[in-house]
Amino acid sequence: MKLPQLDIGNLLARFPIVQGGMAVRISTAPLAAAVAEAGGVGTIAGTGMSVAELRQEIKKARQLTAGIIGVNVLFAVRNFAQLIKASMEEGIDFIVTGAGFSRDMFTWGRKRGVPIIPIVSSARLGKLAERLGAAALVVEGVEAGGHLGTDRPLREILPEVREAVDLPLIAAGGIADGRDAAEMFVHGASGVQLGTRFIASVECTAPQPFKEMCVNTRPEDIVLIDSPVGMPGRAVRNELTEALLAQNPPPIVTCDHCLKRCSRRYCILDVLNKAQRGDVKGGLVFSGISASKIKEILPVAEIIKRLIKEVEGA
Ligand SMILES: Cc1cc2nc3c(=O)[nH]c(=O)nc-3n(C[C@H](O)[C@H](O)[C@H](O)COP(=O)(O)O)c2cc1C
Prior knowledge:
alpha/beta; TIM Barrel; 2 domains; 3-stranded antiparallel beta sheet; binds flavin mononucleotide
């Protein structure tokens, strides 16, 4: 299968391979830039960052590559509008929003000529996003890591969204190799988004124990937890997920009201920060089911080279 280029608004990526935004500070400038430099599309996750920190990350990525770099922000965070507007001022190439979207962000994108790409998990939301002015959609299934907007597999959702909208679709969730990716192109995807596969890369700034948890993981060790955001989240089983499943969440120590709405059952920012600092027992290690298919930590260029070869051989 010949791999198509990815064409979104005024952006043309050599390879239709998108690195998914991963909070908190799992996908930062070095990873996003390495993917962009290899001809794919890199994404910095802005969720959990201050505006100043995100501006710095964008500047850092720009110093590392002239390739395509976007920012992903979870709609649920209180400083959503500030993070999006600051990213646009920094000249970001595109914006991806997870877990919801609002009408006004499309207006900000139109004013600045920045493509807005919402993440959707149904044809209904896909159609709404298209009407509001989305440039493309990330279509994410239950296989993905992080917060989930559905309990349905990508292979069911993607054909429904393809049928319903006329936008480039980027398939996300459970894609670890060229075989998975080729199947998505057959189902009408214009691109594929990988998260977990890129955690297990040399350039990802996640700590080594975090990366190792995303390699050779048994499928039964990738579980679903309830997040205070009001959605389930997919993560690697550890002491924390066991405590959450046993209804024994860690107490909240401080709260800086980072979410627009929060169940206050525990602090999601705190447990994600813990994992990002290397506490992979007490922290939350978000990961997709694809972790069970990933065998080794590789340089980004090698991951992309293998993916392309596998798709072209499929
Ligand atoms: C550690 C981690 C953090 C994530 N954080 C975010 C996020 O902040 N915003 C978002 O929209 N998606 C987030 N995701 C989802 C990814 O962007 C991507 O769509 C997903 O991981 C794809 O599935 P895969 O991991 O099976 O490749 C996260 C995923 C992981 C594994």
